[in-house]
Specification:
heterodimer, A: Cytochrome C Oxidase, Chain A, two-stranded antiparallel ribbon, globular, B: 249 residues, Immunoglobulin-like, 2 domains, five-stranded mixed β-sheet, 41% helix, elongated, binds protoporphyrin IX containing FE, binds copper (II) ion
Chain lengths: 634, 249
């Protein structure tokens, strides 16, 4: 292709060209506006960079080709008919271009988010090196504050939330018997917004004054006063949030309208239920964090006074708005994992999920209750004190639906025929570690206790028990479980088990002792600490390095197995759900024949029970609630 | 060990529960208490630990028991028992946790009311945070301003906490009490120190570069010693105009 041709076609050349153009536009806007208002100096780099940070990602998205179809359509130009030639990936290079196939997008999501997981993990290693001894050894306090802020933000916004979206992207359409997601182009846009958000966060280290250093919570008014790095965070969150919302809408529409004939709501696998409820949470809650970060951005760059007390702003308001998203967000980071674990446990225990309907109802209950507890993060914030006790009670009540899930999984194990595969080990590890995280969660709801332990290492321990022992263990379970489906190859089982045991042991050695130092008085988010905590901290640091190394086992296993693992059968786990009834990896449009669902997804042990059958049944009566699967959207 | 496998599991879990309970209660979790709030809070924490151990051990034993007892024999491609649920069991594990958490919440509420109760003869102390230091005022002592916090033993204190800049959090681990400092607000906490000694005032809310070193001291002294200190501090404030009275011995 000629250079001009390449610069006109969507792709990396055009994306590269888009960047200087985006920069010049941003520069022009800022200088122009300042000239109009007669501001001095005309060239204010803080202002320019703020606008550049918005312009460059947008320009990139245009350049790489996310908007081509829509632009053409909106301008009345003839649209390029979708001939599906770009569907699927023929070589690894195809993963670097805009693609509308949900299976390609799923893998793009997963690989990208693991890249940020590694980046965030390396930052954790640097932090633990610094914390191994009291005093300052490796990084200055400002850098340390930047490290834990970027670590946490990457882990939350660029790993846990989107990796679940990635797994679901791959699996959900297959599970419900659909050829793709409802809005494939929106799906592609959702994915491509993510790397821009992550790169903004990483790039903040190069900003004047260092990376954003106010934690992933970015409390005002510290966040409205700190140097430029903070702006990277506020804008990155907008892109990550927009990506989340768009994907969630896509899941909702896909799940509601594109289920195979016969798949009633009560025949949906629990992973589908989990993503349905998660998507509800995302759509309702995410606009709140977008709002909170816009307020911060406006305070920082346009001189508004949302949080400026001196001008009748309200500093506490930030926390209310922030947690109105960020508490539901902890369920956004957990419900998809619940779904994965239900799939893995039933397939590996060869039993129906115990109390299937209660499992679905408890997800719904968590969605509703999840919106009534945000202020449990603010028990010592100085907010109006009457709100504390009601929020303590609602918070503790969430233990009930969560308990239902734990006990139902245990009952699913009971009298099963249990295969301790790697995903199963991670699922069982999840149940035990998440129980511990839930227990410390209950303690963090009891106000008199939390008055002492809030903002201590007890909280850091709790966070990591629910997010690492909880969410990340389910992510590992899911990745191992669907690895054969996604890659068409088997992973190495012994390496998988080694990975599990190393993770399980060093996870506990790293984060268990943090409960102790926390209650004993070590505050969180500190680059330095009192001498009395030195022994514990060196133990924690050494364990954390070994924990970090255990990840290499996973990485090695994934890379080598993907390249030359043994070929996987269509259904290595003998599972009933639809994604296992097609080849590994699945055909380009998922189902050469439209499946019809005739029973529940987990009828293990029921003689003759099947979930789906492949018989073309055009025009046949569709049971209530089961929408037909339309052809791929144009 | 002979007997029914289920009985064996129950036995193991009872033993594990007892060992676990003893262990978590033996651990010296908290720093030495130095206020009247420490007793009730530490006790509440201990009470929370007991059901926690029970639940954790229960989950652990069922997982381990199932993984061992129901593990597939090599080559076994059979399925488990097609049990879809049990309404009785589900009602049971909805109600029992419900009652448990409700009871714990009520207990927590009672302790909260107890530690926050108003006391007569309260000494008011103003606390003002600023990146990255604490300053104190004693309105009852002729508006004494100082960077030292000295408190008489056994007299209730009400801290009125505020900040010059961003959020901080005023925390004395030995007192068990903490409150954020919020621009534009004065937050209050009550505490009755009951043990003489020197403790750290720790900032517990991220407040910028110096956050981790924003530590100062609080001294709890005998009432007589306190009066002597405040008298001298007031005198010094008047004559020298300085803000830093000497430390009590
Ligand atoms: C080997 C693995 C990990 C280690 C050693 C580690 C270590 C740390 C450390 C040292 C901090 C700073 C604590 C502080 O200064 O207060 C931190 C914070 C945090 N980490 Fe990790 N981390 C790991 C993995 C993860 C993962 C997988 C997640 C989530 C998915 C995660 C989520 C967080 C969050 C949300 C915070 C913020 C806590 C706060 O706001 O104070 N971490 N981690
Ligand atoms: Cu919460
Ligand atoms: Cu601080």
């Amino acid at each position: 292709m000629t250079l001009a041709g390449r610069l006109k076609a969507p792709g990396w050349s055009r994306a590269a060209l888009s960047q200087p153009i985006g920069f010049l536009v941003a520069l022009g806007v800022v200088v122009g506006v300042r000239a109009l208002y007669g501001y001095d100096p005309l060239v204010d780099w803080d202002a320019i960079i703020t606008v550049v940070l918005i312009a460059l990602p947008l320009a990139f998205l245009v350049g790489i080709g996310c908007f081509d179809y829509w632009f053409r359509w909106a301008s009345g130009a003839p649209t390029v008919p979708e001939d599906h030639s770009g569907h699927g990936a023929r070589s690894w290079k195809d993963y670097f271009y805009v693609n509308t196939d949900h299976k390609v997008i799923g893998i793009q999501y997963i690989v990208t988010t693991f890249f940020f997981f590694i980046a965030g993990g390396l930052m954790a290693m640097v932090m633990r090196a610094e914390l191994a001894q009291p005093g300052t050894q490796f990084v200055e306090p400002n850098t340390y504050n930047g490290l834990f802020s970027v670590h946490a933000s990457l882990m939350i916004f660029l790993f846990i939330i989107p990796v679940f979206a990635g797994i679901a992207n791959y699996v959900i359409p297959l599970m419900i018997g659909a050829p793709d997601m409802a809005f494939p182009r929106l799906n592609a846009l959702s994915f491509w917004m993510l790397p821009t958000a992550g790169i903004l966060m990483l790039a903040s280290f190069f900003a004047d004054g260092g990376a954003f250093a106010t934690g992933w919570t970015a409390y005002a008014p510290l966040s409205t006063e700190t140097p430029l790095g903070q702006t990277f965070f506020t804008i990155a969150v907008q892109f990550a949030g927009a990506s989340s919302i768009a994907t969630a809408l896509n899941f909702l529409v896909t799940i509601i309208t594109m289920r195979a004939p016969g798949m009633t709501f009560w025949r949906m696998p629990l992973l589908v239920w989990a993503n349905f409820t998660t998507s509800l949470l995302v759509v309702i809650a995410t606009p709140f964090i977008a709002g909170s970060q816009f307020f911060v951005l406006l305070d920082r760059s346009l001189g508004t006074n949302f949080f400026n007390v001196g001008a009748n702003g309200d500093a506490l308001m930030y926390q209310h708005v922030f947690w109105f998203y960020s508490h539901p967000a902890v369920y956004i980071m957990m419900l998809p994992g619940f779904g994965i674990v239900s799939e893995v446990i039933s397939a590996n225990a060869r039993k129906p999920v115990f109390g299937y309907r209660m499992m679905a109802f408890s997800l719904m209950a968590i969605v509703v209750l999840g919106f009534t507890v945000w202020a449990h993060h603010m028990f010592v914030s100085g907010m109006f004190s009457w709100l504390r006790v009601p929020m303590m009670i609602t918070t503790m009540l969430i233990a009930v639906p969560t308990g239902i899930k734990i006990f139902s999984w245990l009952a699913t194990l009971w009298r099963g025929v249990i295969h301790l595969t790697t995903p199963m080990l991670f699922a069982l590890g999840f149940i035990t570690m998440f129980t511990l995280g839930g227990i410390s969660g209950i303690m963090l709801a009891v106000i008199p206790v939390v008055i002492h332990v809030s903002d201590t290492y007890f909280v850091v321990a709790h966070i990591h028990y629910v997010l690492f022992g909880g969410s990340v263990f389910t992510i590992f379970a899911g990745i191992y479980h669907w690895f054969p489906k996604m890659t068409g190859r088997m992973y190495d089982e012994s390496l998988g088990k080694l990975h599990f045991w190393l993770s399980f042991v060093f996870f506990n050695l790293t984060f268990g002792p943090m409960h102790l130092v926390g209650v004993d008085g070590m505050p969180r988010r500190v680059a330095d600490y009192a001498e009395q905590f030195a022994t514990m901290n060196v133990i924690i640091s050494v364990s954390s390095f070994l924990f970090g190394l255990s990840f290499l086992v996973f990485l090695y296993n994934m890379v080598t197995s993907w390249r030359n693992g043994p070929k996987a059968a269509a259904n290595p786990w003998r599972a009933h759900t639809l994604e296992w009834q097609v080849s590994s990896p699945p055909p380009i449009f998922n189902f050469d024949e439209v499946p019809t669902v005739v029973g529940g997804p987990y009828e293990y042990g029921v003689p003759g029970a099947v979930h789906g059958v492949f018989k073309e049944k055009r025009g046949a009566a569709v049971p209530a609630g089961g929408g037909g699967a339309p052809p791929p959207a144009e | 060990m002979k007997g029914h496998p289920l009985a064996r599991m129950v036995l193991y879990s009872v033993i594990a529960t007892i060992v676990g309970t003893v262990l978590v209660l033996v651990i010296d979790w908290f720093p030495t208490g130095a206020s009247t709030a420490a007793g009730p809070i530490d006790r509440l924490y201990d009470v929370l630990l007991v059901p926690s151990v029970v639940i954790f051990v229960l989950v652990m034993t069922v997982v381990i028991y199932c993984a061992v007892k129901f593990r597939a024999k090599p080559g076994d491609l059979g399925d488990g028992a097609p049990i879809h649920g049990s309404t009785r069991l589900e009602i049971f594990w909805v109600t029992v946790p419900f009652i448990m958490v409700t009871a714990l919440a009520v207990y927590g509420w009672v302790v909260l009311d107890d530690i926050e109760a108003k006391q007569p003869n309260t000494l008011i102390v103003g606390v003002r945070a600023q990146q990255f230091a604490w300053r104190f005022t004693y309105p009852d002592e002729g508006d004494l301003k100082t960077n030292q916090l000295v408190l008489p033993k056994d007299r209730p204190v009400e801290f009125r906490v505020t900040t010059n800049d961003v959020l901080h959090s005023f925390w004395v681990p030995q007192f068990r009490l903490k409150t954020d400092t919020v621009p534009g607000l004065t937050t209050k906490i009550r505490v009755t120190p009951n043990r003489e000694g020197r403790y750290d005032v720790v900032c517990a809310e991220l407040c910028g570069i110096g956050h981790s070193t924003m530590r100062q001291a609080v001294r709890v002294v005998a009432p007589g010693e306190y009066s002597a200190w405040s008298a001298q501090a007031k005198k010094q404030q008047k004559t020298v105009g300085g803000e830093t009275p000497p430390e009590p011995e």
